[in-house]
Amino acid sequence: MNQKWALFSFKGRMRRRDYWLYSLPVLLVSLPVFIYSNPENVADSFALNLLSLVIFGFVFWASAALNIKRLHDRNKSGWWIIVTFLPIIGPIFVIVELGILDGTKGANQFGDDPKGRGEPPSNDNDDNKDTMTIDI
Hints:
Largest sheet: none
Radius of gyration: 19 Å
Shape: elongated
Order of helices and strands: HHHH
Number of helices: 4
Structural class: mainly alpha
Strand content: under 5%
């Protein structure tokens, strides 16, 4: 998967595994910014404030891109991201709707299934026909 697409694009669908694999590092990048950006810790340093603003902008954009692609996988419009900003309901919505529930099987209006479900099986002559894979 392309990191540029995952963190900056609002098009396409993203499966749960990839959503969590990208969301957790973005969250870890944001934690120091939120901890050190409170009014008691803010220095008069313009450079530090600018760096915090740039990191916050990246985290906001990347989170929006990840959430919208998961909404697309659930066959919902990106406008549903507004729900994530609601107190109490927002975090529950993110965890359940984006993080736990499976995406739409097969293609939907936002693209093909990232897990490849709903597509006809290929007739490859593999030697690994007896291998079982599990998609999460």
